[in-house]
Amino acid sequence: MTGTALRWLRANLFSSWLNTLLTLLIVWGLAGVIPALLHWAVTDAVFSAGDSRLCRGASGACWAFIGEKYRLILFGTYPYDQQWRPLLAVLVIIALFVASCDRRLWRRWLLPLWLGAAALVGGLMWGGALGLEFVENRLWGGLPLTLILSVIGLVVAFPLAVLLALGRRSELPMVRALSVAYIELIRGVPLVSLLFMAAVMLPMFLPAGVTIDKLLRAQIAFILFAAAYLAEVVRGGLQAIPRGQYEAADALGLGYWQKMGRVILPQALALAIPPIVNTVISFFKDTSLVIIIGLLDLLGTAKSAIADPNWHGFYRESYLFIALIYWVFCFSLSRYSQWLERDLKRGHQR
Predict the structure, then answer these.
(1) Exposed, middle or buried: residue 179 (CB in 10 Å: 0-12, 13-18, 19+)?
(2) Whole domain around residue 31: which residue ranges?
(3) Which pLDDT tens digit goes with each residue over 180-189?
(4) 350 plus 296 within the same structural domain
(5) What separation, in Å, do the N-terminal and C-terminal C-alpha atoms of the chain show?
């Protein structure tokens, strides 16, 4: 065992004078950073909740702030005595994602399961039935809002993205032109501008007396934005499929949609797993931009928590807390994509 470890160290960290130098520099840097970080985060930190004065006199982190404000950060201004509902909604979304990651469950009934879960999440968040108190979505915030915007946005945007990718490669000039125009128009402007248009300009074009909820407008902007970017990812996968696959499908007498659904798209999507996951992760983090139109996602509620005068100044702890949440979700998606790549045997061996 010791010999194996030494061979690994020699091959990966000390294989040349340059690698040796870089290894020693990194170890030297970590030796200076890690002890100071441990002192700040653990040794000198304040963990007991209740009094911010203890934190102000300490030289370490104030984790008491997280103990005091974690419910505000996670659930925003949702009624305090009803916060079990957004918690249950988050657990439903996570459980559905975990179940959907199992390839054995990729059956036709998975779509009705998603629709049922969406109805359950909506019922939990809004209430107004089965004895649940009605809660306006202007009170939604934190992690549930982040997951709702990202999950619904991606689930709705993905089929649209596939159609746009197929449309961009279509032999019909009008279909191809419309697909190209949509993709280039949406990709040519930042997400911030789409959110501003959805929040400010869209109501100006609606008939008198007709209003669309701000959350729904933001959701539509996210769907349009995600669809354009995912369409280009899917198109890249389509272009990577050898021409012989198209010809073989044509030789079998398959129609266009049969050829795409049974032969081309499964291969293209498998090849496009890394960029798809990269887009999904980026989109999940981009939900933090809704703060500019007055919606408080996870980042927005973290900023609200540190606005309390009694706990003002403990922004490091607040941002580290939400950074950990973002990292757990993003890292889990990344690891799953790597496993799925290997499982589908589409990874390139080097």
Answers:
(1) buried
(2) 1-45
(3) 999 999 999 8
(4) yes
(5) 26
